[in-house]
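Shipment paperwork, digital attachment
Item: protein structure file
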Amino acid sequence: MHQGLVKLLPRLTSTLVPAVTASVMWAVWLGWDQHRDVHPDGSSTGPYEAWQVIGLVLTLLAPVCWAVFRNHAAGAVAGTTTGLTAAAFLDWSDDGSGLFVVGVGMVMIGSLAVTAVVSSVTTLVTRHGRPVQAD
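Attachment content:
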């Protein structure tokens, strides 16, 4: 039984680290900006600026690549997607229209797709934790 836990711990860690990091980074990059910007013509944008979302994505590359380098690409994808989806749900659930569910679904699908691509590319570039030698 003890050996089973020892074998499970790296896999669990490679899922939990990206999940927790994604949730915390959502709060750091997006959680503080909750107002929309109203322009003189009456249109509004926001609440997030492009640089905030780009910062979140670039920050999340580190835990995803870390988990993939540990040969746990599935954990990187599942953890990051779960963390971002949970953070979006908690951040947007006070919306009275109920349309926040559509946004949360889009965050889930988008983060799943992007982390799957990043994990696949990272896996192809590395072989058992060592860079593939180019010919």
